[in-house]
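Hey L., structure's done. Input below.
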Amino acid sequence: MKIEEKLSEMGIHLVLPGPCSHPILHSRQTGNLLFVSGHGTKIKGKVGGSLTTADGYAAAREAGIHCLEAVKLHCGDLDRFRLFVKVFGMVNAAENFTEHPAVMNGVSELLLEAFGEKIGSHARSAVGMGSLPNGIAVEVEMIVELAE
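Output:
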């Protein structure tokens, strides 16, 4: 089954992003590696403050979807994925919040469900930030290996 068909079954329909402001790019390829810029969410607030861990999980999932949209914009076909190398997640967290990995499971579980363990498994960092741009709850960036 094609990845976009699987995403559609999951209720996810990718929308290609508009252009970034120069010189920033949605992603940058070198060799077979695609470095995806940080993508955020419409969900705003501090996890562990105005937002729950579950809210943060939803925000991470949404940010992960936006990363997939950037990859589709770059390569046109999500079936070119060879594997996810690394996911880096930044959580806009209240000072005493400690459940960053549970928040970032939103994107990790999305990738595993959509791509399977062989492609979707990845190295990951989940860190807390004092703030994120425009007050967003989560920002996610990825490194993806593409097939030739």
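Residues 53-75 form the longest helix (23 residues). The chain has one domain: 3-9+22-146.

-- N.
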